[in-house]
Write a structure and sequence with these properties.
Layout: H1 8-13, H2 15-18, H3 23-27, E1 35-36, E2 39-47, E3 52-59, E4 65-71, E5 76-83, H4 92-99, H5 112-115, E6 122-125, E7 128-129, E8 133-140, H6 143-158, H7 164-170, E9 173-176, E10 186-189, H8 191-199, H9 203-215, H10 237-247, E11 253-259, H11 263-273, E12 297-303, E13 316-326, H12 330-344, H13 350-356, E14 363-364, E15 369-371, E16 376-386, H14 391-408, H15 412-427, H16 433-446, H17 451-455, H18 457-470, H19 474-484, E17 489-496, H20 500-516, H21 521-539, E18 565-569, E19 573-577, E20 579-580, E21 585-593, H22 605-611, H23 622-632, E22 636-644, E23 652-663, H24 667-679, H25 686-703, H26 708-717, H27 722-731, E24 739-740, E25 751-752, H28 758-762, H29 782-796, H30 808-812, E26 822-828, H31 831-836
Parallel strand pairs: 4-11, 12-17, 19-26, 20-26
Antiparallel strand pairs: 1-2, 2-3, 3-4, 5-8, 5-11, 6-8, 7-8, 9-10, 13-16, 13-17, 14-16, 15-16, 18-19, 21-23, 21-26, 22-23, 24-25
């Protein structure tokens, strides 16, 4: 909805556009060459597959690029993206992202984004720095709120205060360890400085950074855009301001708006509050094509040892990375992304079979598959959790699989499964679809590719099928071109060095000594003065009245009620049916409580959730099940749940949530899969269970550095309520201490942790809770427990069968029998209703 008074004049001027039934239809009435508030329309394109109309514009005075995506979605989004391509590792784009959010000309208070949280109804507010661009997006469903946030964002990005004190706080500074005590030692401080010190202790991030720096060594990708802690202190305040002047300019900007609000008002506000104050400049931010190598390269780097590693003797990471084509070639990128999935995604992929199931390592290397985040895409494959002497073995396997793929190609069913996955991804409406689109087009658009072409996915699928039909060896030739004959490939290994952290501390100490040794007495006094000034500023209560705020009259007093149809199956199991415009996608959720599960088995619930949809079911082994899931669904997952009663802290409900989605035509197949999973799960392949658990342990270990605050929160709440205690068992630090869990018959056969494996994510799984695993035999615990659960389900008649058509049609196609508690469905509206709604 939008403020009618505010838009009154524009309604009269453009009334012909408001007579249309939908935002997409209104957008189609714009004409190429039409000028609106300083912008010229360059292209108007309908993208029916995504139910949207894309309008490309350019700003006449500054050359700023603009893309508006009109769609019947009330969750409207804005983002402004700047191409930020640093040529050193001082972290200037990252620090600048922080400093611009410390106040602007119109809104001089610190951290306006945070302070807008209680003055806004935003559904998203943030900013982030990539390797070659910085983006500032927000979204909201309220039209007045959109105007308020747009004003704050425009002023922050283009007219920040950039105060020296803010640079010292956010970037880096020399300060006494105790600012009140000048005799205490001088140390480096700063938000970004400390953030990046933490990032450099995360071996996954460190490895990914090395891959990018070394396979693209000639320009901006050879440096650390976020900042190397040892180089951050080289950045000056003057250099930061210069970077802003040359990079945060409309001539270097790409504006994106999405949703059902009128384009004219966006353009008017952006023009009047920002762009009218600038003239065009020549920008020097483009990223050149990387010069290709004449032969492959190898490199070895070191990292800190991981105290949480499942096997301390196997902490080496190794992968081979191949530089691919220009990201602006959208069809080639589409083809290579699909090819990557065929090679590494799921247990049926050749690299999964050869590397993961070979059990030489714990999981794929941190950088795996297609990476389209740089000007030229890359493909990487390798392993982590290997012994250093196994590097050559992994390398030989990679070469062997490439040769075999060129010779044998891919099964047609796997290709169809991936094309089905693309179809369901197109139809699936994520919570913030506008943000997903902005992120999806960001890299291609950043390098002057066509963002609208990126959105036309069905055309690429059609062309891909045509290429495959005309040339059955189409994909094999791509493998040969990009992997066999490609000389621009990097073999990178990284292994732990016991002296790594000591060496880093020594380098920092030397850098500090270099900075402090030449300080004059006046400079030393100034450090003390600035430290106290900063502390005073941080403690000063700011006047935030300059920030815009919503009034009660700006807020819609009523919200749309969603009707839900309730039925009971087997006399006691409640099932809800909810008709929604879901673009032909059916969503399923079911909850079963764990009240009757013995306490000593609850430790194993997270592990059960992790493997229950991945071990096979009915007559399907795990490979066949994975293939069936990809062919017929958008993913199937299970996760532990602890639901607190907010009216009584001593009450809670514990259970497992099962979730999945599928296209309407595949509903019966999806429900048959659930029926087989509930009634006939397979846990007879102990070797594959070992593979899944080993991957889970590695994922758990890798995830700890980024999750310390979450573990602290869960641990702190453990003693407050019974629900908190159970949540800690399912998701707390107890699970992070490596526990021995026996997959075979003896404890020496394997240590396991719990987490979500990479292959699970490929199947559309959400984040899984981590579980504590004790030394128990799978043969003695897991299989009997599952058998008892199934038997109890049958005895208590907790089954669901949908037999009649109506909400009928949906119910009839759901032949699921199993133990379920509550079910929630979101199903497509009838086709005629979508037509009437203009979709």
């Amino acid at each position: 909805m939008f403020n009618l008074i505010y838009f009154n004049s524009y309604i009269h001027q453009r009334s012909w556009r408001w007579n249309s039934r939908s935002a997409t239809e209104r957008a189609l009435q714009y004409k190429v060459g039409e000028k609106i508030h300083g912008f010229t329309i360059n292209q108007v394109t309908a993208v029916p597959d995504l139910f949207l109309t894309a309008i490309k514009l350019s700003h006449d005075s500054t050359g700023a690029k603009y893309l508006h995506v009109a769609r019947d979605d009330p969750n409207n989004l804005f983002s402004v993206q700047l191409r930020t391509t640093p040529l050193d590792s001082t972290g200037v784009p990252h620090i600048l992202e922080h400093v611009v959010l410390c106040g602007s000309e119109k809104y001089p208070c610190r951290d306006p984004f945070f302070k807008m949280l209680n003055r806004s109804l935003s559904t998203f507010m943030n900013a982030f720095t990539a390797s070659d661009y910085t983006m500032y997006p927000f979204s909201t469903q309220n039209s007045k709120d959109f105007q308020n946030l747009l004003s704050v964002y425009l002023d922050a990005v283009f007219f920040p205060c950039l105060r020296e004190l803010d640079f010292c706080q956010e970037g880096w500074r020399l300060e006494h360890e105790n600012p009140h005590d000048p005799s205490s030692p001088l140390v480096f401080k700063g938000v970004v400085f400390n953030e990046m010190k933490g990032a450099f202790t995360d071996n996954e991030k460190l490895y990914a950074q090395h891959v990018q720096n070394k396979i693209l060594p000639d320009h901006t990708y050879s440096v650390v855009s976020g900042g190397d802690p040892m180089h951050i202190p080289e950045l000056t305040w003057e250099e930061l301001k210069h970077f802003h002047a040359t990079h945060y300019h409309p001539s270097n900007a790409r504006f994106f708006t999405y949703g059902d609000l009128p384009l004219e008002q966006h353009l008017k506000q952006i023009q009047e509050e920002a762009l009218c104050k600038f003239n065009r400049i020549e920008t020097d931010t483009a990223v050149p094509i990387q010069q290709r190598w004449s032969k492959p390269r190898e490199c070895h780097v070191t990292c800190g040892p991981d105290s949480m590693a499942p096997d301390p003797t196997k902490q080496t990471m190794f992968s081979v990375s191949f530089l691919l084509g220009d990201i602006t070639d959208s069809f080639e990128g589409f083809t290579l992304s699909l090819l990557s999935s065929l090679l590494v995604s799921g247990p049926n992929s050749p690299f999964y079979k050869a590397l993961i199931e070979f059990q030489i390592g714990t999981d794929f290397a941190p950088v795996v598959g297609y990476d389209g985040s740089t000007r030229e895409a890359c493909f990487s494959v390798g392993l982590q959790g290997i012994a250093e002497q196994d590097i050559q073995t992994v390398k030989q396997i990679i070469v062997k699989i490439i040769d075999e793929t060129i010779k044998n190609g891919f099964e047609e069913e796997r290709i169809e499964a991936l094309l089905h996955k693309i179809e369901i991804q197109q139809k699936h409406q994520s919570t913030n679809f506008g943000l997903a689109l902005a992120s999806f087009i960001s890299t291609t658009w950043n390098h002057d590719g066509d963002p609208v072409e990126v959105l036309q996915i069905n055309e690429k699928v059609t062309w891909f099928r045509k290429c495959l039909k005309e040339n059955p060896h189409f994909l094999q030739e791509k493998v040969k071109q990009y992997f066999k004959e490609n000389q621009h490939q990097l073999a990178l290994s990284m292994s732990p060095d016991e002296a790594y952290f000591a060496n880093q501390a020594k380098i920092e100490k030397e850098k500090l000594q270099q900075k402090t040794s030449s300080l004059s007495e006046e400079e030393k006094l100034n450090i003390v003065k600035k430290g106290l000034e900063l502390m005073t500023a941080q403690r000063t209560l700011e006047d935030v009245s300059c920030l815009p705020a919503l009034k009660v009259s700006d807020i819609q007093p009523m919200f749309t009620f969603t009707p839900v149809e309730m039925e009971y199956v087997a006399g006691e199991v409640p099932v809800q049916y909810c008709a929604q415009p879901t673009n032909g996608v059916v969503y399923f959720r079911a909850f079963t409580n764990l009240n009757t599960l013995p306490e000593d088995l609850k430790l194993y619930v997270p592990l059960f959730c992790n493997v229950i949809t991945r071990m096979g079911c009915g007559v399907l082994d795990y490979r066949q099940q994975a293939q069936r899931i990809e062919l017929k669904t958008g993913g199937m997952s299970a996760s532990p749940q602890v639901l607190q009663d907010n009216t009584n802290l001593d009450m809670y409900e514990q259970g497992v949530m099962f979730t999945s989605l599928c296209l309407d035509r595949n509903l019966s197949d999806m429900m048959q899969l659930w029926a087989d999973i509930f009634n006939n799960p397979r846990f007879d392949d102990e070797e594959y269970l070992r593979v899944l658990v080993t991957m889970a342990a590695q994922e758990l270990s890798n995830g700890i550095p980024d999750s310390g605050h979450l573990y602290a929160s869960v641990q702190a709440s453990k003693t407050l309520t019974p629900a908190g205690n159970l949540a800690e068992m399912f998701d707390g630090i107890s699970q992070d201490v490596p526990r021995r869990y026996t997959v075979g018959s003896g404890p020496e056969q394997g240590g396991i942790g719990q987490g979500e494996g990479r292959e699970g994510r490929e199947q559309g799984r959400g984040r899984e809770s981590r579980g504590e695993l004790k030394a128990r035999s799978k043969r003695k615990v897991l299989r009997p427990a599952l058998k008892e659960e199934r038997e109890e389900a049958r005895q208590r008649h907790w089954g669901i069968e949908f037999q009649s058509l109506g909400a009928e049609r949906l119910k009839a196609r759901s032949p699921m029998v199993g133990r379920l508690g509550r079910g929630m469905w979101s199903r497509p509206e009838p086709e005629e209703r979508r037509v009437r709604a203009g979709r």
